[in-house]
Structures are given as C-alpha cells and as structure tokens.
Write a structure and sequence with these properties.
This protein folds into two domains: 1-50, no CATH class; 54-167, no CATH class. The chain is built from eight helices and four strands. The chain has helices at residues 2-13, 38-41, 56-65, 77-91, 96-104, 113-118, 124-146, 151-167; strands at residues 15-16, 19-23, 26-29, 35-36. It has a four-stranded antiparallel beta sheet.
Amino acid sequence: MYSSAISNIEDELSYFGDYYYIGGGRYECRDTGNIGTYDEIVPQNTVKRSSGPVKQEAKDARAKLRPFGFKALTGSKKQKDWAEKIRLEIMTPLPSETKMFFAAMEVLPIHRASFWIENRHKSSTNFAEFERGLINLCADLNRKVEEGMLQSEANSIYNNFVSEFASS
C-alpha cells in the first residue's frame, strides 16, 4: 500500500515542463536526455510549469518514435497531445533511415509541437520527397562550392529550400 501511494505521488509530480521525475530524486530532461537532480539539470529561472503530463496516447506515439532518435516535443500540453499523434502518422510509413534523418535534422524545428501542427496537411510522401530533395541539393551545392560558388550563396539556397518546405 505504501509503495502504491508513493507511486501515485510520483505520477502527480512527475512532469515539470520538459523535465520528468524518474525516481530516486532524479529527473530527466526529455529534450537533451540529461539525468540528474532537479538543481543539476533544470536551468534556474527558466522552469516552465505545465498543466500536467501529456495524455497516454501522446506518450505511446512518442515511445514508438524514440528508437529513431525523436525527442519529446515542446509546446503546451494540448499542442503536444495533438502533435505527437500527427508526427507518428506522418513518420510511421517512412523507412527507418528517413525517420532517423528527420530526428537528427536541426534546420527544421521538428522539436516544436507547432511545426507538426502547422504541417499536418503534409503526407509522408511530402516528407520523403523533401529528404531526397535536400540530399540532392546538398550534393549539388557541395559540388558548386568546390567549383567556386560562395559559401554564403550556397547557404542562402539551402535555407530557402528548407524554409519553403516548412512554410508551404
């Protein structure tokens, strides 16, 4: 009975913004994966309070994508509940390599729930085409830079390609 009561208390206290209580006085940052005491991993003066943990359905969606490198999304609880499902629907049909490509991608704000909500109308095919296009573009830009194109010009072309996808 005592362990059940402790478990219930830990469940109630488990979520502090992007920091989860994992037991034994230790917390995990879902964005970085860092584990430590609250004071060790939570930046002071930046603690976000939430209305509670995301729904179980959102946790399950996140768990299915975690092996590919996807991290917890940032945003309000309501945004994260919705966006985790959207992200899973889009990513599920894609090959493992493509999932890992997007999980590692830093140029798209894929860690934000709002990105997935804003791009919910895109299909898995759109994401796969973006991946192929970006890989081809990078190869082409690398060749052009070796041939004399300014790096700043190549960066501009790259950023425009990424921005068009994120805003279309």
